[in-house]
Please model this.
Amino acid sequence: MVRIVLLVALSGALFLVSCKHAPPANVAAMVNSHAITYADLDKTYQSQYPQPVEGSSDDQVMTQKLDVLNSLINAELLLQRAEKLGLMAVDADVDAELNKMKAPYTKEQFDSQLAARKMNLDDLKSQIRRQLTIDKLINKEITSHITVTDADV
Model:
């Protein structure tokens, strides 16, 4: 019963996201004109949940995948807004953040960490670029408009 409800919820979410037409067979969701493929969804799921939880059911896995899909959709919307505003992260920022992440590890340890998350260096750079871009957008659109006075504290 729960599986049917989740399947209906997933179908409804996909229908609402795609709006005007059904996405191609390998597309989990369309965000404006950008496709989030099942390969993207599976890769992100594997990096966030590298080891299956002992005793997890198909329903729990489906719920986790829906959560990942939701986060991918939200991130894509934020990235599209950031691109529209010209707030994309530059290579120098990505490289600086990558070097900060590498600093505490030897090359072997760092590579091992990536392998444990089922990622390669290009995947990590892409993830860093996306996160830095979203951070820039949030700083411009939200954080810059917040002021806290001494009276507020």
